[in-house]
Amino acid sequence: MKKVCMIVADHPFMDSRIFKKEAKSLQKKGYDVSMIVPRKNGYLFDVDGTPFTNRFLEKSFVYEGIKIITYNWENSRNQLNKVVNDVSTWDTSGAFYNPLTKLGIKQDADIYHVHEYLSLFAGIGIKRLMKTLKGKDVKLIYDSHELTPDPFDPRYSESHRNNLKEKLLYMLKETDYIITISDSIKSWYISQNPSLPVEVVYNSPPLALTYKQKNYNKNKLTACYEGNIDPNRGNTDKIFKMSEICAKNVDFKFKIIGGPRFGETIQLPDHLQKNIHLTGWVDFQEISKHMEEVDIGWIDYDNLNQSLNRHYAMPNKFFSFLNNGVPIIVNKCHDMESFLRRHQCGLVVNKQYSKGEDFAEALLYLYNNKDMLQKMSINARKAMEDLYSWEKMEQRLYNVYSELLGNNVKFLM
Fold first, then answer.
1. What are the φ and ψ backbone dihedral angles of 409, each rounded to 5 degrees?
2. Are residues 193 and 62 in the same domain?
3. pLDDT value at position 131?
4. Is the pTM above the cut of 0.90?
5. Are 200 and 181 in contact (CB under 8 A)?
6. Residue 164 and residue 151: Cα distance in Å, rounded?
7. Are residues 277 and 254 in contact, defined by beta-carbon separation less than 8 angstroms?
8. How many degrees, rounded to 5, is the angle at CA 239 between CA 237 and CA 243?
9. How many domains does the chain contain in total?
10. How far is it, in rounded angstroms, from Cα 196 to Cα 186?
11. Closest to 333 (Cα-Cα) out of 355, 353, 356
């Protein structure tokens, strides 16, 4: 049985992509899967940042058949941040004397699957030291959930971004495979090095088995946002404006599945209390139930001039809507726009910065064109059934692993 070790620098250990999809799929395929994951302030944390104070307190344990090994996030930063140092000093400066690398070596895995820029750095240390200390050649997968560094990110100086990019390209020379989440990110990597093996594994859920085709012959409308609400995502001012305008024209509800993270709240205006419903964070398996009454999904990324990742984004919520036959309204983000136009399963507001009024107009347009909305709903579900469900992405994941292990078996998608 081949051993796989997932290395995580920042994500929660039950992250929907890392644990619930990739790790569980590999386990189902017969791999021995372990995960090295961070504690913050001594605790593991849920997808919304809530600390698990009454469970998962052991340093290592088995959860749903997967071995979980924990370390203190705070104790990992100093060594991992040495990634910015001259590469000639990495082996001698203690850079690889970090919890992720040390614990990774102990797992003695065949494939190490890392999920962030800093866990890639730890993975480079694992690969080198496994060869030096044990004479074992291991494979390293970089699961690039986004581009780091983001070429547009104003939080870092140009010189710092250039340094991070230089180190990334250096690390990729020792990386055996890249998995990423959008075609544009794949193209970016190949533009840097045409010989890099890159596969796109979208953030898709398994097909919703309880799906029933939606019926839009009704005189009401429910829009939805799924995921985090913070300064960069799920702009509440826009939600309030959309709800205010639409409620004057139709029996309107706005449903928020997820919402603020641990320690944060949303204050709903008094006059919209009946129009906006917050479910709170729900279990990954329960999302489809909450989508049953949803007519249209909403995704909006502001400040596109400050983030190439937002242009390239294909987030979990995007496929979650499609999985449940929910057409999507988005602003002008490159990859989502291309997908919606190709599959005719949503509407693009033709502005990079769209106001609440713009989205309200789009919602009411679709409400008044129910035949179009019905067709978009059918197309959304069909795209998932035919091409994009996790069952399809799972085969891509298996093919990457099969190729790395020298198997000739290819899984049909």
1. -75, 130
2. yes
3. 97
4. yes
5. yes
6. 10
7. yes
8. 120
9. 2
10. 10
11. 353
287-343, pLDDT tens digit by residue?
Answer: 889 999 999 999 999 888 899 999 999 999 999 999 999 999 999 999 999 999 999
Q: For the segment 211-239, what is each residue's pLDDT rounded down to a tens digit? A: 999 999 889 999 999 988 875 666 899 99
- The answer on 178 and 79 residing in a single domain is yes
* Residue 76 included in any domain: yes
| CA separation for the pair 406, 413 (Å, rounded) | 20
One-letter amino acid of 49: G
Predicted confidence at residue 413, as pLDDT, reads 52
pLDDT category at 284 given cuts 50, 70, 90 is confident
Whether 36 and 179 map to the same domain: the answer is yes
Assigned token pair, 349: 């507001």
Environment class of 362 (CB within 10 Å of its CB; exposed 0-12, middle 13-18, buried 19+): buried
- Count Cβ atoms below 10 Å from residue 245 Cβ, excluding itself: 17
Q: 159 and 281: one domain?
A: no
Show the domain range for 53.
Answer: 3-204+390-404
> How many alpha carbons lie under 13 Å from residue 376 in its C-beta half-sphere?
24
Same domain, 275 and 375: yes
- Quick one: which H or E segment has residue 280? strand 276-280
**Average pLDDT, stretch 184-200?**
96
- Summarised one tens digit per residue, pLDDT across range 331-379 is 999 999 999 999 999 999 998 899 999 999 999 999 999 999 999 999 9
Dist. CA 27–CA 32, nearest whole Å:
6
Query: Residue 161 in contact with residue 151, Cβ under 8 Å?
Result: yes
| Residue the block writes with tokens 């010989």 | 195
CATH number at residue 97: 3.40.50.2000
Whether residue 266 has pLDDT greater than 90: no
Whether residue 243 lies inside any domain: the answer is yes
